[in-house]
Design goal:
Elements (H helix, E strand, L loop, with lengths): L7 H68 L2 H5 L2 H13 L4 E6 L7 H8 L9 E8 L1 H7 L2 E6 L7 E12 L4 E10 L4 H12 L3 E2 L2 E2 L1 E7 L2 E5 L16 H9 L4 E7 L2 E11 L5 E10 H52 L15 H63 L8 H32 L7 E4 H12 L1 H6 L3 E4 L6 E4 L1 H18 L5 E8 L4 E8 L6 H4 L23 H11 L3 E7 L3 E9 L1
Parallel strand pairs: 14-16
Antiparallel strand pairs: 1-3, 1-5, 2-4, 4-5, 6-7, 8-9, 8-12, 10-11, 11-12, 13-15, 16-17, 17-19, 18-19
Helix pairs in contact: 1-8, 8-9, 9-10, 11-13, 13-15
């Protein structure tokens, strides 16, 4: 079935597709925004959690250092701590077994440790109000080592520059001796790659994605990497490289954690930088943890495409189901449409097949079929009535033609004899008799006029009106004969006729029918014009190439509500003629039909103090 461009099927299905496409786009954009935000939010939360895991590792390291110091306090006596060679050897072995970078024993005896040195020492390792301390320090230990007389020191080589270390300190007071000892154990963070490796293994399991580390961990001494899992292009650790200026300003200078996208060497990471502070709250470095952005981006892309695919699949299935439902519905509607078209084209027996769905369309089909049945029954009744009317009309027209024809002949004969009596053909007649004959003559002429109108009506109704179109001199062939016929009526009402039609004005028309037109129009102008009034007739050619004929009289105006029905059959204008007789109500109807035979139209304009004009327009 061919679908029209303006069909309801195309509009309905088109709108349905547009709605589904719009919904698909809207839902896709919405899910893109939501998933994108959720993925980014989840990544940021994961980075924060990873950072907490990193700090937890350091907290565990601090607790381990504290446990080592507690063990030393409980295990070794003062003598072993300060004097015994065997005890010192045991301490050295213990330091190595616990993987400590340093273990120091310092006496706080003022004789051993000067007061100013003690103050400087306290500023890094201990505080007066606490027996134990743990945390981070940043100090050139070599300078401090020259000032402090260590009772015992063991561990790895002390770095030459300012280094960061995680440490624990413990005050031991021997009550039997006037002696206070400080134990300090710690690990250097500068170069402590095993720290960051362990953190990375705990958090990221040292996974790789597309030959790149999924996660990286870095310890910064100031803005410089001193321990990191970030690798250079040659596979070496990126120790000694520096952080970006933006991160430095925010985290290292202002102490605010930095979370977001960060370019670490040549790769982009979702990174978190948090400051490392010493026990006095001074920022001495940073801890960095980052997750390769490509992992999150690819995961987000996969989720987006998977979600988009699922949404489009669901929308496609929903659209397919809806289109099937719509197509079935439209098929039922098209059955109604087809039956309506067939019925309008004359197939009055057509009906829509009833279905068992039981919905509104089924009800509509039932009502529609019932309506067609009613229309068909009414049509058959109308056909019978029309046949009866046509038969009656044919009888009426035959009778009308016969009666008017017979009356016309009889009236013509009677009128001829009356005129002959007046003229004395049958002998001299007195004036009194002539007056009576005049009355009879007027009555016979009136009857003859009505008879002529009925005869013309009969011919018009039966299509038997003879029509011969040729070039007609309007003034000579039509106007003058008509004026001669109504001259007596013009004299009786003392009417003045202004004939503005040129002598040589010619138009294509039927002479006899145009005479009928002017007989009716001029006759009405005489009948309904005022006493001693004026009648004006004119003819001209318009700019549009038409011929315009006008008959005007200065009689009383026609009421507006009557103008629309003036040209109807048997419609009489309610004004009596001078002799008290009314017309048959056929004149203007016949005028209209004759003008229509000429391909033209007739209209009337009537206004107070401006008279009444009948205007005829005939195409050339």
């Amino acid at each position: 079935m061919k679908i029209k461009s303006n069909s309801i099927q195309l509009k309905f299905i088109g709108n349905l597709i547009v709605v589904f496409v719009f919904l698909s786009l809207f839902i896709s954009i919405l899910q893109f925004v939501l998933i994108n935000n959720l993925v980014i939010k989840a990544a940021n939360e994961r980075i924060k959690l990873n950072m907490k895991s990193g700090w937890y590792y350091f907290d565990e390291k601090k607790r381990k250092l504290e446990m080592i110091l507690d063990f030393l306090e409980d295990t070794f006596s003062k003598k072993e701590m300060l004097e015994g060679t065997e005890g010192l050897i045991s301490l050295s072995k213990y330091t190595e077994s616990k993987d400590l970078d340093y273990l120091w024993i310092i006496s706080k005896n003022s004789n051993v440790l000067p007061k100013e040195v003690l103050s400087e020492f306290n500023s890094f390792f201990v505080s007066e109000d606490s027996k134990n301390n743990t945390g981070f320090i940043k100090k050139n230990i070599r300078d401090l080592q020259e000032k402090i007389p260590f009772i015992f020191q063991s561990g790895r080589t002390i770095p030459e520059d300012e280094s960061i270390s995680v440490f624990a300190s413990k005050k031991i007071i021997y009550s039997n001796f006037d002696e206070e000892v400080i134990l300090i154990a710690g690990c250097w963070l500068d170069g402590a790659n095993y720290f960051v490796d362990q953190i990375q293994n705990i958090v990221f399991e040292d996974s790789f994605y597309k030959k790149k580390r999924v996660g990286t961990v870095t310890i910064f001494n100031g803005d410089e990497r001193v321990a990191t899992t970030v690798l250079l292009s040659n596979g070496q650790r990126a120790v000694g490289t520096q952080v970006s200026e933006a991160v430095k300003q925010q985290t290292l200078i202002r102490g605010i954690p930095w979370i977001g996208r960060a370019q670490v060497l040549d790769d982009w990471y979702l990174a978190c930088y948090e400051p490392i502070k010493d026990i006095h709250g001074n920022i001495i470095g940073m801890l960095y943890m980052g997750e390769l952005e490509a992992v999150t981006k690819d995961a987000r892309t996969f989720v987006l495409f998977l979600t988009l695919f699922i949404i489009l699949l669901i929308m496609f299935i929903a659209l397919f189901v809806r289109l099937r439902q719509t197509t079935r519905l439209l098929k039922r509607i098209y059955k109604l449409r087809k039956s309506a078209i067939e019925f309008s084209q004359g197939n009055f027996s057509t009906r829509v097949e009833q279905d068992s769905t039981g919905d509104e369309i089924s009800e509509l089909v039932s009502v529609f079929n019932s309506m067609l049945e009613t229309i068909e029954n009414d049509r058959l009744k109308l056909i019978k009535q029309q046949e009866l009317v046509e038969e009656a009309n044919a009888n009426y027209l035959d009778m009308l033609g016969f009666v008017t024809h017979e009356l016309r002949n009889s009236l013509g004969s009677a009128l001829f004899n009356v005129i002959s009596l007046k003229e004395g053909v049958y002998g001299e007649t007195s004036e009194e008799v002539k007056e009576g004959l005049n009355i009879v003559e007027d009555s016979l002429k009136y009857l003859k006029e009505i008879t002529n109108n009925y005869l013309q009506l009969s011919r018009l109704e039966q299509g038997e009106l003879y029509f011969e179109k040729k070039e007609v001199n309007l003034q000579k062939d039509v106007i003058q004969p008509v004026l001669n016929d109504i001259s007596k009526l013009l004299e009786m009402k003392k009417l003045k006729v202004e004939n503005e039609i040129p002598e040589n004005f010619v138009l294509p028309a039927d002479i006899n029918l145009m005479r009928v037109v002017y007989e009716n129009l001029l006759g009405n102008a005489v009948k309904y014009g005022k006493e001693e009034g004026n009648i004006k007739i004119s003819a001209s050619r318009t700019e549009g190439g038409q011929i315009q004929l006008i008959v005007w009289n200065d009689g009383p105006p026609i009421e507006p509500q009557l103008i629309t029905s003036l040209f109807h059959r048997f419609k009489r204008y309610d004004t009596k003629t001078p002799d008290g007789k009314k017309g048959a109500g056929l004149g203007l109807f016949i005028v209209k039909r004759i003008i229509e035979l000429h391909g033209g139209e007739v209209s009337v304009h009537s206004e107070k103090d401006k008279g009444t004009s009948f205007i005829i327009n005939i195409p050339v």
